[in-house]
Protein backbone atom coordinates (compact mmCIF):
# COMPACT_ATOMS: atom_id res chain seq x y z
CA UNK A 1 0.00 0.00 0.00
CA UNK A 2 1.40 3.41 -0.95
CA UNK A 3 1.90 6.24 1.52
CA UNK A 4 -0.91 8.20 -0.18
CA UNK A 5 -3.29 5.25 0.15
CA UNK A 6 -2.41 4.93 3.83
CA UNK A 7 -2.98 8.67 4.39
CA UNK A 8 -6.36 8.56 2.66
CA UNK A 9 -7.44 5.41 4.49
CA UNK A 10 -6.50 7.04 7.82
CA UNK A 11 -8.36 10.25 6.83
CA UNK A 12 -11.53 8.28 6.05
CA UNK A 13 -11.29 6.19 9.21
CA UNK A 14 -10.84 9.38 11.31
CA UNK A 15 -13.85 10.92 9.53
CA UNK A 16 -16.02 7.84 10.22
CA UNK A 17 -14.95 7.82 13.87
CA UNK A 18 -15.82 11.53 14.15
CA UNK A 19 -19.22 10.88 12.57
CA UNK A 20 -19.87 8.05 15.02
CA UNK A 21 -18.80 10.26 17.96
CA UNK A 22 -20.89 13.23 16.81
CA UNK A 23 -17.72 15.33 16.53
CA UNK A 24 -18.60 18.02 13.97
CA UNK A 25 -15.11 19.56 13.90
CA UNK A 26 -13.64 16.12 13.23
CA UNK A 27 -16.15 15.52 10.43
CA UNK A 28 -15.28 18.80 8.71
CA UNK A 29 -11.50 18.95 9.15
CA UNK A 30 -10.41 17.15 5.96
CA UNK A 31 -13.08 18.49 3.59
CA UNK A 32 -12.57 21.06 0.84
CA UNK A 33 -14.21 24.47 1.09
CA UNK A 34 -16.08 23.67 -2.15
CA UNK A 35 -17.21 20.17 -1.09
CA UNK A 36 -20.14 18.71 -3.02
CA UNK A 37 -22.19 16.05 -1.23
CA UNK A 38 -25.07 13.93 -2.43
CA UNK A 39 -26.75 12.32 0.56
CA UNK A 40 -29.60 9.92 1.28
CA UNK A 41 -32.00 12.60 2.63
CA UNK A 42 -32.87 15.77 0.69
CA UNK A 43 -31.98 18.19 -0.68
CA UNK A 44 -32.16 16.19 -3.89
CA UNK A 45 -29.71 18.48 -5.69
CA UNK A 46 -27.11 17.86 -2.98
CA UNK A 47 -25.22 20.38 -0.93
CA UNK A 48 -22.39 22.58 -2.09
CA UNK A 49 -19.78 24.25 0.06
CA UNK A 50 -18.48 23.56 3.54
CA UNK A 51 -21.17 25.68 5.24
CA UNK A 52 -24.02 23.73 3.61
CA UNK A 53 -22.19 20.47 4.36
CA UNK A 54 -21.83 21.48 8.03
CA UNK A 55 -25.58 22.08 8.30
CA UNK A 56 -26.41 18.50 7.26
CA UNK A 57 -24.76 16.86 10.26
CA UNK A 58 -26.68 17.96 13.40
CA UNK A 59 -29.89 16.09 12.40
CA UNK A 60 -27.84 12.96 11.67
CA UNK A 61 -26.07 13.23 15.02
CA UNK A 62 -29.43 13.59 16.80
CA UNK A 63 -30.71 10.44 15.05
CA UNK A 64 -27.49 8.58 15.80
CA UNK A 65 -27.71 9.44 19.52
CA UNK A 66 -30.69 7.08 19.65
CA UNK A 67 -28.29 4.14 19.33
CA UNK A 68 -27.57 3.96 15.60
CA UNK A 69 -24.39 2.48 14.14
CA UNK A 70 -21.96 4.08 11.70
CA UNK A 71 -19.14 1.61 11.08
CA UNK A 72 -16.90 1.02 8.07
CA UNK A 73 -17.12 -2.58 6.94
CA UNK A 74 -14.98 -2.39 3.81
CA UNK A 75 -12.89 0.37 2.25
CA UNK A 76 -11.01 0.56 -1.05
CA UNK A 77 -8.78 3.48 -2.07
CA UNK A 78 -7.38 4.31 -5.51
CA UNK A 79 -4.79 7.07 -5.93
CA UNK A 80 -3.56 8.73 -9.11
CA UNK A 81 -1.28 11.74 -8.77
CA UNK A 82 -3.14 14.56 -7.02
CA UNK A 83 -6.60 12.95 -7.17
CA UNK A 84 -8.01 9.83 -5.58
CA UNK A 85 -11.28 8.09 -4.97
CA UNK A 86 -12.49 5.68 -2.34
CA UNK A 87 -15.55 3.54 -1.92
CA UNK A 88 -16.79 1.86 1.21
CA UNK A 89 -19.65 -0.11 2.68
CA UNK A 90 -20.85 0.86 6.14
CA UNK A 91 -23.23 -0.57 8.68
CA UNK A 92 -25.43 2.43 9.26
CA UNK A 93 -28.76 2.18 11.00
CA UNK A 94 -30.71 1.89 14.18
CA UNK A 95 -30.55 -1.48 15.95
CA UNK A 96 -34.06 -2.44 14.81
CA UNK A 97 -33.30 -1.50 11.19
CA UNK A 98 -30.11 -3.56 11.21
CA UNK A 99 -31.93 -6.51 12.80
CA UNK A 100 -34.70 -6.37 10.15
CA UNK A 101 -32.27 -5.92 7.22
CA UNK A 102 -28.88 -7.22 8.41
CA UNK A 103 -27.43 -7.22 4.88
CA UNK A 104 -28.30 -3.56 4.17
CA UNK A 105 -25.26 -1.30 3.85
CA UNK A 106 -24.70 2.39 3.34
CA UNK A 107 -22.64 2.90 0.20
CA UNK A 108 -20.05 5.67 0.39
CA UNK A 109 -18.03 7.11 -2.46
CA UNK A 110 -15.46 9.86 -1.92
CA UNK A 111 -13.50 11.97 -4.41
CA UNK A 112 -10.32 13.47 -2.97
CA UNK A 113 -7.70 15.89 -4.19
CA UNK A 114 -4.37 17.05 -2.86
CA UNK A 115 -4.41 20.68 -1.71
CA UNK A 116 -1.20 22.30 -0.47
CA UNK A 117 0.34 18.90 0.18
CA UNK A 118 -2.58 17.28 2.03
CA UNK A 119 -5.56 15.22 0.97
CA UNK A 120 -9.09 16.68 1.25
CA UNK A 121 -12.50 15.30 0.38
CA UNK A 122 -13.96 17.28 -2.53
CA UNK A 123 -16.93 15.01 -3.27
CA UNK A 124 -18.95 12.74 -1.01
CA UNK A 125 -21.85 10.51 -1.97
CA UNK A 126 -23.97 8.34 0.34
CA UNK A 127 -26.68 5.94 -0.81
CA UNK A 128 -28.65 2.90 0.23
CA UNK A 129 -29.83 0.24 -2.22
CA UNK A 130 -33.40 0.72 -3.43
CA UNK A 131 -35.20 -2.21 -1.86
CA UNK A 132 -38.59 -1.19 -3.22
CA UNK A 133 -37.90 -3.04 -6.50
CA UNK A 134 -39.23 -6.22 -4.89
CA UNK A 135 -42.63 -4.55 -4.92
CA UNK A 136 -42.51 -3.69 -8.64
CA UNK A 137 -44.88 -5.40 -11.01
CA UNK A 138 -43.37 -7.54 -13.78
CA UNK A 139 -44.62 -5.04 -16.40
CA UNK A 140 -42.99 -2.11 -14.57
CA UNK A 141 -39.76 -4.04 -14.26
CA UNK A 142 -39.77 -4.83 -18.00
CA UNK A 143 -40.29 -1.12 -18.76
CA UNK A 144 -37.37 -0.08 -16.56
CA UNK A 145 -35.11 -2.74 -18.08
CA UNK A 146 -36.07 -1.62 -21.61
CA UNK A 147 -35.20 1.99 -20.76
CA UNK A 148 -31.89 0.84 -19.26
CA UNK A 149 -31.01 -1.16 -22.41
CA UNK A 150 -31.61 1.92 -24.61
CATH topology heading: Nuclear Transport Factor 2, Chain: A
Per CATH, the architecture is Roll
Derived from helix and strand composition plus strand pairing, the structural class reads alpha+beta
DSSP helical segment count = 5
Number of domains: 1
According to CATH, what is the class? Alpha Beta
Total E-strand runs: 6
Identify the strand order in the major beta sheet.
2-1-6-5-4-3
Rg of Cα set: 17 Å
Shape category: globular
Unreliable stretches (pLDDT < 50, length at least 5) are none
Helical amount: 25-40%
Report the order of strands and helices: HHEEHEEHEEH
Q: What fraction strand?
A: 35-45%
Organism: Streptomyces macrosporus
Protein name: SnoaL-like domain-containing protein
Domain SnoaL-like: 8-130
Region (Disordered): 128-150
Report on the architecture of this protein.
- The structure is a single chain.
- This protein is α+β, with helices and mostly antiparallel strands.
- The chain has a single domain, classed as Nuclear Transport Factor 2, Chain: A (Roll).
- The protein has five helices and six strands; from the N terminus they run ααββαββαββα.
- It has helices at 3-21, 24-28, 50-64, 95-100, 138-149, and strands spanning 31-38, 47-48, 69-80, 83-93, 106-115, 118-127.
- Strands 2-1-6-5-4-3 form a six-stranded mixed beta sheet.
- The longest helix is centred in the first third of the chain and has 19 residues, at 3-21.
- The mean pLDDT is 91.
Features:
alpha+beta, Nuclear Transport Factor 2, Chain: A, 150 residues, 6-stranded mixed β-sheet, 5 helices
Amino acid sequence: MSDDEEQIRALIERWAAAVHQGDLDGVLVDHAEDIVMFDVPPPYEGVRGIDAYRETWPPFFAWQEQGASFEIESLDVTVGGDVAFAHALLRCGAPQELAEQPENRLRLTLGLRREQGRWVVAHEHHSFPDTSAGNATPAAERQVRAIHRR
